[in-house]
Specification:
- It is a single chain.
- This protein is of the alpha/beta class and about 190 residues long.
- It has a single domain, classed as 3-Layer(aba) Sandwich (Pyruvate-ferredoxin Oxidoreductase, domain 3), CATH 3.40.920.
- The chain contains 8 helices and 6 strands.
- A 6-stranded mixed beta sheet has the order 2-3-1-4-5-6, with helices on both faces.
- The chain starts with a strand and ends with a helix.
């Protein structure tokens, strides 16, 4: 199997690290080689968080270089724009339409860029937008938007058995929120074609 490259990008507090852990664990549970790398930056203060996950028969490096990502999974629109250079031609970007203002915008130092969605839709790739916050709210837990996005990306990782995702989620989240997270996963999976 060729190596499949996924870049996850968001801001601190959105659950990027948990989502990358789930992606990594599901690849391992499928008997594949997985390498994962993450950059936290100023994540505790709402700064950027990125994670690279590579899954394949044999993976040699955890880092994804520009133009090599099969999927960019953006937990926030602006982070999708910041990381679009990782996408390979014909790749896919899956993004959360819910906006999270970075500190620089919240403080008034800069203005949130306009027309990000239309710019993403003009990329030479497949584009899938979903409101992960709203979907997680509908299943009863707004903190599970990251698992909604994992559900969305799972739809495109057809080499991984759907039951493996649920097993890994079960081992990754506390039992008291397991049912909500499984519903969030299904909501995300069903939201993309």
């Amino acid at each position: 199997m060729k190596t499949f490259n996924i870049v996850l990008a968001g801001v601190g507090g959105q659950g990027v690290i948990l989502a990358s852990k789930i992606l990594s664990e599901v690849g391992i549970s499928q008997g594949l080689d997985v390498k994962q790398s993450e950059v936290h930056g100023m994540s505790q203060r709402g700064g950027s968080v990125t994670s690279h996950v590579k899954i394949g028969s044999k993976v040699y490096s955890p880092l994804i270089t520009e133009g090599e990502a099969d999927i960019v999974l953006a937990f926030e629109l602006l982070e999708g724009m910041r990381n679009k250079h990782y996408l390979k031609k014909g790749g896919q970007i899956i993004y959360n339409t819910s906006r999270v203002n970075p500190i620089t915008v919240s403080s008034g130092a800069v203005k949130y860029p306009e027309n990000i969605e239309s710019e993403l839709k003009n990329l030479d790739c497949e584009v899938h937008g979903l409101d992960a916050f709203d979907l997680s709210k509908k299943v009863g837990n707004t903190k599970s938007a990251n698992v909604v996005l994992v559900g969305a990306v799972s739809k495109f990782l057809t080499f991984i058995d759907e039951n493996k995702w649920k097993e890994v989620i079960k081992s990754s989240v506390p039992a008291k929120v397991l049912d909500l997270n499984l519903k969030a996963f299904e909501a995300g999976r069903n939201s993309v074609q």
